[in-house]
Amino acid sequence: MKKIVFRFICLLFLLNIIFIPKIFATEVPDIVCPYAGVYRMDNLELLYGKSEDTIIPIASITKLMTAIVALENIPNLNDKVRIDYDKVSQYIDSDYAVAGIDESDTLTYYDLVATMLIPSGADSAVQLGLSVFDSMDTFVAKMNEKAQELGMTNSHFANVIGIDDEQNYSTINDVAKMLKYALENSIIKELISTYSYTTTDEKVTVRNAMNVIADARKIELKYTLGGKTGSTGDAGLCLASYAIDEGNTILCITAGVDMYSYVPYNIIDTEKLYEYIATNYSMQEIASAGDFVVDIPAEYCEEEKVSISLNESVEYYIDSMDKSKVKLVYTGKNKVDSTMNEYTKLGSVKVYYDDVLVKTVDVFLNQKLKFDVVGWLKDNGVGLLIMIIVIDIILIILRRRYIKAHRTVYLKGIKS
User: Fold this and answer.
1) pLDDT tens digits for 80-127?
2) pLDDT tens for residues 1-18?
3) How many CB atoms lie within 10 A of CB 103?
4) pLDDT value at position 170?
5) Are 173 and 251 members of one domain?
6) Same domain for 99 and 133?
7) Residue 198 counted as domain residue
8) One domain, residues 294 and 261
9) Which residues span the domain enclosing 387?
10) Are 225 and 244 in contact (CB under 8 A)?
């Protein structure tokens, strides 16, 4: 008996070790960042928020929009760019993060985008702003046009770098929209996830600003796969990043840490928030195959109705399952009849969780319907009777004409 109890205790211990991250919820972490937000990338559902609607400066996170506008307006990323450092230097101060490009470099547009995003090079950002359009003002105007297109209604850009300016601002929620759009561009996603990069002329090598800081402070990036840092006196330390958990891309934005605290809480808090989400959230079945959706009337069939049900299960990334938050909404045919073949598509079912659309599932007729003759006659007897009478009258008229015609022929034959 003691052996059995001992084995049972050991089994429970092992199960705790294996499954505790996804079974036992952890408390929301206490973070230093005054502004933060964690989102599902696919639908921008907010999983954690802290002053996420407050308008704030966002420092070099601005360069994500610079990259978006540049990549969408450069015909060929392999085209060479002449570096005009005299003009570039007019836009940057000595304390700005730079990639170290100069007029002796022969760089491509791709090099400029890479050396802007990876080390947060202000010099590369300015050169892009001067080269892509006819002027820097045009480039910045395009940034604001794109922001409005993305629904960033509480954002405005005044420069390509992200330097402090009353007209260069955003919110955590707006940055999430920008980050989602940026990550849908494979080049931006690859570059902000790149540890180091060497330009095509092999003269400039840069390292990812986020990784440089994490390495220096011995911060393990257990969850963060890529990100764009930012830091200015007004914006503080910022980070827009992404992680992946159970196949779901998760976005995290942190901002507002005092840059003179010399502790990169923008990175530390990001890891804390990702760990909180990964520990508490998981893919859970919110609707099962066979779940009833709605009954559809069957017209002139032996079956009075057809029950519509899901033909597949639906999972969603949530912290805890609450069946009352699941809603199935059917859209399609409002009746069926025996002329429909089995497996005829009837419509679709939208599966919602907490009023968020999770998935749309097509539904089909899952049985062969039998025609109900008696029922049809009951509803259509008068019409059928009228139709029979009309047919009879027509037949009588035709028969009389036929007889008359043959009688005339017969009489002519006798006379002759």
Assistant:
1) 998 998 999 999 988 899 999 988 788 999 999 999 999 999 999 999
2) 545 544 544 444 444 444
3) 11
4) 98
5) yes
6) yes
7) yes
8) no
9) 375-401
10) yes
